[in-house]
Protein backbone atom coordinates (compact mmCIF):
# COMPACT_ATOMS: atom_id res chain seq x y z
CA UNK A 1 0.00 0.00 0.00
CA UNK A 2 2.87 2.35 0.77
CA UNK A 3 4.25 1.98 -2.76
CA UNK A 4 0.81 2.80 -4.13
CA UNK A 5 0.66 5.95 -2.00
CA UNK A 6 4.10 6.99 -3.26
CA UNK A 7 2.92 6.50 -6.84
CA UNK A 8 -0.17 8.61 -6.14
CA UNK A 9 2.01 11.28 -4.53
CA UNK A 10 4.30 11.50 -7.54
CA UNK A 11 1.30 11.78 -9.86
CA UNK A 12 -0.19 14.51 -7.70
CA UNK A 13 3.06 16.46 -7.63
CA UNK A 14 3.41 16.30 -11.41
CA UNK A 15 -0.17 17.55 -11.81
CA UNK A 16 0.70 21.00 -10.44
CA UNK A 17 4.43 21.56 -10.97
CA UNK A 18 4.43 25.26 -10.00
CA UNK A 19 2.87 24.65 -6.58
CA UNK A 20 5.10 21.62 -6.07
CA UNK A 21 8.22 23.63 -6.91
CA UNK A 22 7.19 26.37 -4.46
CA UNK A 23 6.71 23.86 -1.63
CA UNK A 24 10.03 22.14 -2.32
CA UNK A 25 11.79 25.51 -2.59
CA UNK A 26 10.31 26.73 0.72
CA UNK A 27 11.53 23.64 2.56
CA UNK A 28 14.88 23.55 0.72
CA UNK A 29 15.69 27.16 1.54
CA UNK A 30 14.91 26.63 5.22
CA UNK A 31 16.95 23.43 5.37
CA UNK A 32 19.87 25.02 3.50
CA UNK A 33 20.09 28.01 5.86
CA UNK A 34 19.67 26.01 9.07
CA UNK A 35 22.00 23.17 8.07
CA UNK A 36 24.75 25.57 6.99
CA UNK A 37 24.83 27.10 10.45
CA UNK A 38 24.24 23.79 12.25
CA UNK A 39 27.13 22.12 10.41
CA UNK A 40 29.47 24.96 11.33
CA UNK A 41 28.23 25.01 14.93
CA UNK A 42 28.64 21.25 15.35
CA UNK A 43 32.22 21.41 14.04
CA UNK A 44 33.14 24.33 16.32
CA UNK A 45 31.60 22.76 19.43
CA UNK A 46 32.86 19.24 18.78
CA UNK A 47 34.89 17.19 21.24
CA UNK A 48 38.00 15.68 19.60
CA UNK A 49 38.52 13.23 22.50
CA UNK A 50 35.09 12.56 24.06
CA UNK A 51 36.40 9.45 25.80
CA UNK A 52 38.96 11.51 27.73
CA UNK A 53 37.62 15.06 28.01
CA UNK A 54 35.91 14.38 31.34
CA UNK A 55 39.31 13.39 32.80
CA UNK A 56 41.32 16.38 31.57
CA UNK A 57 41.46 19.51 33.72
CA UNK A 58 42.97 22.98 33.59
CA UNK A 59 44.13 24.55 36.89
CA UNK A 60 44.08 28.32 37.32
CA UNK A 61 45.78 30.34 40.04
CA UNK A 62 45.23 34.04 40.58
CA UNK A 63 48.71 35.57 40.85
CA UNK A 64 47.70 39.13 39.87
CA UNK A 65 45.22 39.97 42.62
CA UNK A 66 41.79 41.60 42.90
CA UNK A 67 42.86 44.91 41.33
CA UNK A 68 43.30 43.18 37.99
CA UNK A 69 40.01 41.31 38.32
CA UNK A 70 38.13 44.54 39.04
CA UNK A 71 39.64 46.24 35.99
CA UNK A 72 39.14 43.39 33.57
CA UNK A 73 36.10 41.69 35.11
CA UNK A 74 37.74 38.32 34.39
CA UNK A 75 38.24 35.14 36.41
CA UNK A 76 41.81 34.01 37.26
CA UNK A 77 44.21 34.24 34.35
CA UNK A 78 43.80 31.36 31.89
CA UNK A 79 47.54 30.65 31.89
CA UNK A 80 50.16 30.21 34.60
CA UNK A 81 53.49 31.71 35.50
CA UNK A 82 56.65 29.63 35.32
CA UNK A 83 56.89 29.74 39.11
CA UNK A 84 53.48 28.11 39.50
CA UNK A 85 54.12 25.58 36.73
CA UNK A 86 57.32 24.42 38.39
CA UNK A 87 55.50 24.00 41.70
CA UNK A 88 52.64 21.99 40.14
CA UNK A 89 55.04 19.75 38.25
CA UNK A 90 57.02 19.06 41.44
CA UNK A 91 53.80 18.27 43.35
CA UNK A 92 52.97 15.33 41.03
CA UNK A 93 49.35 15.54 42.21
CA UNK A 94 48.02 14.02 38.96
CA UNK A 95 48.83 10.67 37.31
CA UNK A 96 49.67 12.63 34.16
CA UNK A 97 50.39 16.33 33.81
CA UNK A 98 51.88 18.59 31.17
CA UNK A 99 52.80 22.25 30.97
CA UNK A 100 53.29 23.74 27.51
CA UNK A 101 53.74 26.84 25.42
CA UNK A 102 53.81 27.68 21.73
CA UNK A 103 57.17 28.32 20.11
CA UNK A 104 58.77 27.88 16.71
CA UNK A 105 61.95 27.14 14.79
CA UNK A 106 63.80 27.70 11.59
CA UNK A 107 64.30 24.20 10.19
CA UNK A 108 67.37 23.64 8.05
CA UNK A 109 66.91 20.48 5.90
CA UNK A 110 69.85 18.15 5.42
CA UNK A 111 69.13 18.21 1.68
CA UNK A 112 70.96 21.28 0.33
CA UNK A 113 68.35 21.61 -2.42
CA UNK A 114 65.71 22.42 0.20
CA UNK A 115 65.58 25.93 1.62
CA UNK A 116 65.32 26.58 5.38
CA UNK A 117 61.78 27.30 6.53
CA UNK A 118 59.88 28.19 9.68
CA UNK A 119 57.64 25.78 11.56
CA UNK A 120 55.39 26.17 14.58
CA UNK A 121 56.31 24.03 17.56
CA UNK A 122 55.14 23.14 21.04
CA UNK A 123 57.34 22.82 24.08
CA UNK A 124 55.72 20.39 26.51
CA UNK A 125 56.20 17.29 28.65
CA UNK A 126 56.07 13.68 27.54
CA UNK A 127 52.71 13.06 29.23
CA UNK A 128 51.10 15.41 26.67
CA UNK A 129 50.95 12.68 24.04
CA UNK A 130 49.13 10.10 26.18
CA UNK A 131 46.83 12.67 27.75
CA UNK A 132 45.54 13.86 24.38
CA UNK A 133 45.80 10.43 22.70
CA UNK A 134 48.15 11.63 19.99
CA UNK A 135 48.62 8.87 17.36
CA UNK A 136 52.13 7.82 16.34
CA UNK A 137 53.16 6.45 12.96
CA UNK A 138 56.76 5.72 13.97
CA UNK A 139 58.45 5.65 17.35
CA UNK A 140 57.02 7.05 20.57
CA UNK A 141 57.27 10.04 22.95
CA UNK A 142 60.59 10.80 24.62
CA UNK A 143 59.34 9.61 28.03
CA UNK A 144 59.80 11.03 31.53
CA UNK A 145 63.54 10.38 31.31
CA UNK A 146 63.78 12.77 28.37
CA UNK A 147 62.08 15.48 30.41
CA UNK A 148 64.27 15.01 33.46
CA UNK A 149 67.56 14.74 31.56
CA UNK A 150 66.79 17.72 29.27
CA UNK A 151 67.51 15.52 26.26
CA UNK A 152 67.90 16.99 22.76
CA UNK A 153 65.05 14.93 21.35
CA UNK A 154 62.07 15.83 19.21
CA UNK A 155 58.79 14.43 17.94
CA UNK A 156 57.78 15.61 14.47
CA UNK A 157 54.51 15.55 12.56
CA UNK A 158 53.68 13.41 9.56
CA UNK A 159 53.72 16.35 7.13
CA UNK A 160 57.17 17.43 8.24
CA UNK A 161 58.43 13.85 8.05
CA UNK A 162 57.07 13.57 4.51
CA UNK A 163 58.82 16.81 3.54
CA UNK A 164 62.19 16.04 5.09
CA UNK A 165 62.43 12.25 4.78
CA UNK A 166 59.97 11.31 2.04
CA UNK A 167 57.58 9.62 4.47
CA UNK A 168 60.04 6.91 5.56
CA UNK A 169 60.78 6.21 9.19
CA UNK A 170 63.10 8.90 10.53
CA UNK A 171 63.54 7.46 14.04
CA UNK A 172 67.12 7.99 15.19
CA UNK A 173 67.85 10.62 12.56
CA UNK A 174 68.47 14.26 13.37
CA UNK A 175 66.73 17.46 12.40
CA UNK A 176 68.32 20.90 12.63
CA UNK A 177 66.21 23.40 14.57
CA UNK A 178 67.61 26.91 15.01
CA UNK A 179 71.09 25.61 14.13
CA UNK A 180 70.97 22.85 16.73
CA UNK A 181 70.55 19.14 16.02
CA UNK A 182 67.79 17.15 17.73
CA UNK A 183 67.34 13.39 17.57
CA UNK A 184 63.94 12.25 16.28
CA UNK A 185 62.27 9.75 18.61
CA UNK A 186 58.73 9.79 17.22
CA UNK A 187 56.70 10.68 14.15
CA UNK A 188 53.01 11.47 14.49
CA UNK A 189 50.33 9.98 12.30
CA UNK A 190 47.61 12.19 10.83
CA UNK A 191 46.35 14.28 13.75
CA UNK A 192 44.44 17.53 13.55
CA UNK A 193 41.93 17.93 16.42
CA UNK A 194 39.26 20.58 15.97
CA UNK A 195 39.01 22.46 18.17
CA UNK A 196 42.55 22.14 19.48
CA UNK A 197 41.52 21.21 23.01
CA UNK A 198 45.01 21.51 24.39
CA UNK A 199 45.38 25.14 23.23
CA UNK A 200 42.20 27.14 22.63
CA UNK A 201 43.87 30.32 23.88
CA UNK A 202 46.45 30.84 21.13
CA UNK A 203 44.58 29.17 18.25
CA UNK A 204 41.38 27.14 18.66
CA UNK A 205 41.04 25.82 15.12
CA UNK A 206 44.54 25.87 13.66
CA UNK A 207 46.48 22.82 12.55
CA UNK A 208 48.47 20.84 15.09
CA UNK A 209 52.15 21.74 15.35
CA UNK A 210 54.71 19.75 13.40
CA UNK A 211 57.45 19.90 16.05
CA UNK A 212 57.32 18.95 19.74
CA UNK A 213 60.28 19.37 22.09
CA UNK A 214 60.73 18.84 25.84
CA UNK A 215 59.77 21.97 27.76
CA UNK A 216 62.85 21.56 29.93
CA UNK A 217 65.01 21.89 26.82
CA UNK A 218 62.99 24.88 25.62
CA UNK A 219 63.61 26.65 28.92
CA UNK A 220 67.34 25.86 28.80
CA UNK A 221 67.65 27.20 25.24
CA UNK A 222 65.50 30.32 25.85
CA UNK A 223 63.14 29.34 23.03
CA UNK A 224 60.93 32.21 21.90
CA UNK A 225 57.33 32.45 23.09
CA UNK A 226 55.04 32.46 20.05
CA UNK A 227 51.80 32.42 22.01
CA UNK A 228 50.20 34.71 24.56
CA UNK A 229 52.55 36.29 27.08
CA UNK A 230 50.82 38.64 29.53
CA UNK A 231 52.45 40.54 32.37
CA UNK A 232 50.87 42.57 35.15
CA UNK A 233 54.02 44.57 35.95
CA UNK A 234 57.59 45.18 34.85
CA UNK A 235 60.18 42.52 35.66
CA UNK A 236 63.91 42.06 35.73
CA UNK A 237 65.41 42.06 32.23
CA UNK A 238 66.49 38.89 30.50
CA UNK A 239 65.20 35.33 30.28
CA UNK A 240 65.77 34.58 33.96
CA UNK A 241 63.90 37.70 34.94
CA UNK A 242 60.98 36.62 32.80
CA UNK A 243 60.97 33.11 34.30
CA UNK A 244 60.76 34.45 37.84
CA UNK A 245 58.23 37.17 37.05
CA UNK A 246 54.46 37.04 37.46
CA UNK A 247 53.96 36.91 33.68
CA UNK A 248 51.49 34.22 32.61
CA UNK A 249 52.44 32.38 29.39
CA UNK A 250 52.29 28.64 30.12
CA UNK A 251 49.27 26.41 29.80
CA UNK A 252 48.85 23.44 32.12
CA UNK A 253 46.75 20.27 31.88
CA UNK A 254 46.26 17.50 34.44
CA UNK A 255 44.63 14.11 33.89
CA UNK A 256 42.41 13.14 36.84
CA UNK A 257 40.60 9.83 36.22
CA UNK A 258 38.00 9.98 39.02
CA UNK A 259 36.09 12.36 41.28
CA UNK A 260 38.26 11.61 44.31
CA UNK A 261 41.41 12.67 42.49
CA UNK A 262 39.67 15.79 41.23
CA UNK A 263 38.78 16.73 44.79
CA UNK A 264 42.32 16.05 46.02
CA UNK A 265 43.76 18.18 43.24
CA UNK A 266 41.40 21.06 44.10
CA UNK A 267 42.53 20.83 47.72
CA UNK A 268 46.16 20.84 46.63
CA UNK A 269 45.59 23.98 44.53
CA UNK A 270 43.93 25.77 47.42
CA UNK A 271 46.70 24.74 49.80
CA UNK A 272 49.36 25.91 47.37
CA UNK A 273 47.71 29.32 46.90
CA UNK A 274 47.33 29.68 50.66
CA UNK A 275 51.01 28.83 51.11
CA UNK A 276 51.96 31.52 48.58
CA UNK A 277 49.86 34.03 50.52
CA UNK A 278 51.49 32.96 53.77
CA UNK A 279 54.95 33.37 52.22
CA UNK A 280 54.10 36.93 51.18
CA UNK A 281 53.92 36.39 47.43
CA UNK A 282 50.15 36.90 47.30
CA UNK A 283 48.63 39.76 49.30
CA UNK A 284 45.02 38.74 48.73
CA UNK A 285 42.69 35.89 49.50
CA UNK A 286 43.70 32.81 47.49
CA UNK A 287 41.67 32.23 44.33
CA UNK A 288 41.97 29.05 42.26
CA UNK A 289 39.85 27.19 39.74
CA UNK A 290 39.91 23.70 38.24
CA UNK A 291 37.92 23.29 35.00
CA UNK A 292 37.22 20.18 32.97
CA UNK A 293 37.93 20.25 29.23
CA UNK A 294 34.26 20.89 28.43
CA UNK A 295 34.02 23.67 31.00
CA UNK A 296 37.26 25.13 29.65
CA UNK A 297 35.81 25.33 26.13
CA UNK A 298 32.89 27.33 27.49
CA UNK A 299 35.07 29.62 29.61
CA UNK A 300 37.30 30.43 26.64
CA UNK A 301 34.33 31.07 24.32
CA UNK A 302 35.55 28.56 21.74
CA UNK A 303 32.07 28.77 20.18
CA UNK A 304 31.39 32.52 19.82
CA UNK A 305 28.07 33.85 21.06
CA UNK A 306 27.48 35.20 17.55
CA UNK A 307 27.44 31.62 16.22
CA UNK A 308 24.71 30.66 18.67
CA UNK A 309 22.65 33.68 17.66
CA UNK A 310 23.08 32.91 13.95
CA UNK A 311 22.03 29.32 14.60
CA UNK A 312 18.84 30.51 16.30
CA UNK A 313 18.16 32.94 13.45
CA UNK A 314 18.64 30.22 10.83
CA UNK A 315 16.15 27.90 12.57
CA UNK A 316 13.73 30.81 12.88
CA UNK A 317 14.03 31.20 9.12
CA UNK A 318 13.31 27.47 8.75
CA UNK A 319 10.15 27.97 10.84
CA UNK A 320 9.02 30.82 8.56
CA UNK A 321 9.64 28.62 5.51
CA UNK A 322 7.57 25.83 7.08
CA UNK A 323 4.70 28.23 7.75
CA UNK A 324 4.73 29.12 4.07
CA UNK A 325 4.86 25.42 3.19
CA UNK A 326 1.79 24.82 5.39
CA UNK A 327 -0.15 27.42 3.41
CA UNK A 328 0.93 25.93 0.09
CA UNK A 329 0.03 22.38 1.19
CA UNK A 330 -3.32 23.56 2.48
CA UNK A 331 -4.07 25.17 -0.88
CA UNK A 332 -3.01 22.01 -2.69
CA UNK A 333 -4.98 19.54 -0.58
CA UNK A 334 -8.11 21.66 -0.39
CA UNK A 335 -7.89 22.29 -4.12
CA UNK A 336 -8.60 18.62 -4.75
CA UNK A 337 -11.53 18.33 -2.35
CA UNK A 338 -13.71 16.95 -5.12
CA UNK A 339 -11.28 14.10 -5.75
CA UNK A 340 -11.09 13.38 -2.04
CA UNK A 341 -14.91 13.39 -1.79
CA UNK A 342 -15.19 10.84 -4.59
CA UNK A 343 -12.62 8.60 -2.91
CA UNK A 344 -14.50 8.81 0.35
CA UNK A 345 -17.79 8.02 -1.40
CA UNK A 346 -16.21 4.96 -3.01
CA UNK A 347 -15.26 3.58 0.38
CA UNK A 348 -11.93 5.13 1.36
CA UNK A 349 -11.91 5.98 5.06
CA UNK A 350 -10.32 9.02 6.63
CA UNK A 351 -7.27 7.03 7.69
CA UNK A 352 -6.52 6.09 4.08
CA UNK A 353 -6.85 9.71 2.94
CA UNK A 354 -4.66 10.83 5.84
CA UNK A 355 -1.94 8.29 5.02
CA UNK A 356 -1.95 9.25 1.34
CA UNK A 357 -1.54 12.95 2.14
CA UNK A 358 1.18 12.28 4.70
CA UNK A 359 3.14 10.17 2.22
CA UNK A 360 2.85 13.04 -0.23
CA UNK A 361 4.22 15.50 2.31
CA UNK A 362 7.06 13.07 3.02
CA UNK A 363 7.96 12.97 -0.68
CA UNK A 364 7.92 16.77 -0.74
CA UNK A 365 10.14 16.82 2.34
CA UNK A 366 12.61 14.38 0.74
CA UNK A 367 12.84 16.53 -2.37
CA UNK A 368 13.21 19.63 -0.19
CA UNK A 369 15.96 17.89 1.78
CA UNK A 370 17.93 17.09 -1.38
CA UNK A 371 17.59 20.70 -2.50
CA UNK A 372 18.56 21.80 1.02
CA UNK A 373 21.73 19.69 0.82
CA UNK A 374 22.75 21.41 -2.39
CA UNK A 375 22.04 24.82 -0.85
CA UNK A 376 23.97 23.81 2.28
CA UNK A 377 26.97 22.97 0.12
CA UNK A 378 26.75 26.39 -1.55
CA UNK A 379 26.31 28.03 1.85
CA UNK A 380 29.43 26.36 3.23
CA UNK A 381 31.42 27.48 0.18
CA UNK A 382 30.29 31.03 0.91
CA UNK A 383 31.15 30.71 4.60
CA UNK A 384 34.57 29.30 3.68
CA UNK A 385 35.27 32.40 1.62
CA UNK A 386 34.77 34.73 4.59
CA UNK A 387 36.24 32.61 7.40
CA UNK A 388 39.87 32.66 8.42
CA UNK A 389 42.09 30.01 6.83
CA UNK A 390 42.47 28.06 10.09
CA UNK A 391 38.67 27.57 10.27
CA UNK A 392 38.12 26.53 6.65
CA UNK A 393 38.44 22.85 7.60
CA UNK A 394 35.21 23.17 9.60
CA UNK A 395 33.13 23.98 6.52
CA UNK A 396 32.47 20.53 5.13
CA UNK A 397 29.61 18.08 5.11
CA UNK A 398 30.07 14.61 6.54
CA UNK A 399 27.71 11.63 6.46
CA UNK A 400 26.07 12.66 9.73
CA UNK A 401 25.27 16.10 8.31
CA UNK A 402 23.78 14.59 5.13
CA UNK A 403 21.55 12.17 7.04
CA UNK A 404 20.56 14.89 9.49
CA UNK A 405 19.60 17.28 6.68
CA UNK A 406 17.38 14.73 4.93
CA UNK A 407 15.74 13.61 8.18
CA UNK A 408 15.17 17.20 9.25
CA UNK A 409 13.54 18.01 5.92
CA UNK A 410 11.24 14.98 5.96
CA UNK A 411 10.25 15.45 9.61
CA UNK A 412 9.69 19.18 9.08
CA UNK A 413 7.56 18.55 6.00
CA UNK A 414 5.49 15.89 7.77
CA UNK A 415 4.91 18.20 10.74
CA UNK A 416 4.02 21.04 8.39
CA UNK A 417 1.59 18.77 6.56
CA UNK A 418 -0.36 17.60 9.62
CA UNK A 419 -2.87 20.48 9.62
CA UNK A 420 -3.46 20.54 5.83
CA UNK A 421 -3.86 16.75 5.89
CA UNK A 422 -6.32 16.92 8.78
CA UNK A 423 -8.35 19.52 6.87
CA UNK A 424 -8.37 17.24 3.83
CA UNK A 425 -9.78 14.34 5.88
CA UNK A 426 -12.70 16.52 7.02
CA UNK A 427 -14.12 16.74 3.50
CA UNK A 428 -17.77 15.62 3.46
CA UNK A 429 -18.34 13.25 0.49
CA UNK A 430 -22.03 14.15 0.13
CA UNK A 431 -21.34 17.89 -0.17
CA UNK A 432 -18.64 17.39 -2.77
CA UNK A 433 -20.78 15.00 -4.84
CA UNK A 434 -23.75 17.37 -4.68
CA UNK A 435 -21.58 20.36 -5.69
CA UNK A 436 -20.31 18.46 -8.71
- Poorly predicted sequence stretches spanning 5 or more consecutive residues: 431-435
Helix content: 40-55%
Radius of gyration: 31 Å
The main sheet orders its strands as 2-3-8-5-7-6
Task: State the total count of DSSP E strands.
Answer: 10
List the helices and strands in order: HHEHHEEHEHEHEEEHHEHEHHHHHH
| Biggest β-sheet description | 6 strands, mixed, barrel
The separation of the N and C termini measures: 29 Å
Strand content: 5-15%
Outline the structure in words.
By secondary structure, this protein is α+β, with helices and mostly antiparallel strands. The chain folds into 2 domains: about 180 residues, no CATH class; about 250 residues, no CATH class. It is built from 16 helices and 10 strands. The chain has a 6-stranded mixed barrel with strand order 2-3-8-5-7-6. Helix 2 packs across helix 14 and helix 12 runs parallel beside helix 15. The longest helix is centred in the last third of the chain and has 37 residues. The C terminus is likely disordered.
In a few lines, what is going on in this structure?
This protein is 52% helix and 14% strand.
Write the layout of secondary structure elements.
Elements lengths: L1 H14 L1 H28 L11 E6 L4 H7 L9 H10 L4 E13 L8 E8 L2 H5 L4 E4 L3 H6 L4 E4 L1 H8 L8 E4 L2 E9 L22 E4 H6 L17 H6 L7 E5 L3 H20 L9 E5 H7 L5 H31 L1 H9 L4 H37 L12 H27 L3 H7 L1
Parallel strand pairs: 3-8, 5-7
Antiparallel strand pairs: 1-9, 1-10, 2-3, 2-6, 2-9, 4-7, 5-8, 6-7
Helix pairs in contact: 1-14, 2-12, 2-14, 2-15, 12-15, 13-16, 14-15
Amino acid sequence: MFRYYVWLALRSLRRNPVLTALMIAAIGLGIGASMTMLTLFRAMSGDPIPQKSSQLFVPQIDNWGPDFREKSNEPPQPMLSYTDVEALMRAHAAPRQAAMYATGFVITPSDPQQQPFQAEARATYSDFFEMFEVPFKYGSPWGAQGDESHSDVVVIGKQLNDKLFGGASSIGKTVNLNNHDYRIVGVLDDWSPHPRTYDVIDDSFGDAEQVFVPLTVAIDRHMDIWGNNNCSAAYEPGWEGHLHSECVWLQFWAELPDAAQVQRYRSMLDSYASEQQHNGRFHWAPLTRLSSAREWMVLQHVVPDESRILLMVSFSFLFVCLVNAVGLMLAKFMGRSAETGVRRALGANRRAVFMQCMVETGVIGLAGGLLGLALTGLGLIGVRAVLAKDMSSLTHLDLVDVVLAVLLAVVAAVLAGIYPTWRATQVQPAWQLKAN
